[in-house]
Amino acid sequence: MLKLSTIAFTAMFSWSVQGANLPAEIEVDRYILAAEKHINNQEFSQAEDYLQRAVTLQVSTPDKFYFLYGQVLLRNGKLSQAQENLERYLTKAGKEGEYYQQALALYTEAEEKLVVKAKASQPTSKIPVDAIKAGPSKSKKLVTSLKKLYLTENDEEALLRHINAILNNYAVRTGKLINLNKEADLIYSVTTNKQGELFVTRRSSLAADANKRFSSSRLSVYGVDPFVDYKCSQVEKVCWLKHPVDGQRWLVIRKDNQAIKDLAQTMTALLRTKQK
């Protein structure tokens, strides 16, 4: 009888703790405080867990969050993501930011480690499994099917239209329920020119990108490895293509394993087509 009472009490206590949900804005502060404690104790995995929880709340975070997240990701070996968060902190907080000097030092450390990592991987460059599957013959079949789908005889046009269709249909939209009638919070588009250049345009209305609503980048396809790899984050609920030069995030869509695989294969085919 005593055992049953203990179990019942434990269950009631557990339910009451889980049921006492704080507002998301307060939870973010709590997670940041917990992360700082673990950082001070050199417990970076635990710190990352708390900061990832803050990300899932999808609410505005203080500038300090990006500094802490960048620091933790760097210590956990996630160099590209560390740079992204440190860059975001430096952009948002500016020279007057509390951690400005420290953020600059950490950003440089991440940059140097990325260079070392890139040099070490050059002799044994690994080709992603999906890229191997998307060899020349498969790319040719893909182009043929897309030309039929988009009713065009132009290889490049068919590939571009398919890439932009995926980027549009799977654009990032925040919130628990995806409303396709709502304007996308983060969307990309791709164009090319006859000089062998590929242009990526990025439009964002995310709170974290207040100072970077619109940006564009250019890639010369010549000399670039056409095999495009990708990655997904369950925490952030997004997938992205890796930049063919530095491996950092390039094109981002909401998490969908088949869509990102399709996007990677189509981009690989486009790079091959432009390199001919």
Describe the 3D structure.
With 276 residues, the chain is an alpha+beta fold. It has two domains: 20-121, Alpha Horseshoe (Serine Threonine Protein Phosphatase 5, Tetratricopeptide repeat); 129-275, no CATH class. Helix content is 55%, strand content 13%. The chain has helices at 2-19, 24-40, 44-56, 63-75, 79-93, 100-121, 129-133, 136-149, 155-169, 257-275, and strands at residues 186-192, 197-204, 214-220, 230-233, 238-242, 249-254. The strands form two sheets. A three-stranded antiparallel β-sheet has the order 1-2-3. Strands 4-5-6 form a three-stranded antiparallel β-sheet, covered by helices on one side. Strand 1 (186-192) and strand 2 (197-204) form a beta hairpin. Helix 5 (79-93) runs antiparallel to helix 6 (100-121), helix 8 (136-149) crosses helix 10 and helix 9 runs antiparallel to helix 10. The longest helix is centred in the middle third of the chain and has 22 residues, at 100-121. The chain is elongated. Residues 1-20 and 122-134 have low confidence and may be disordered.
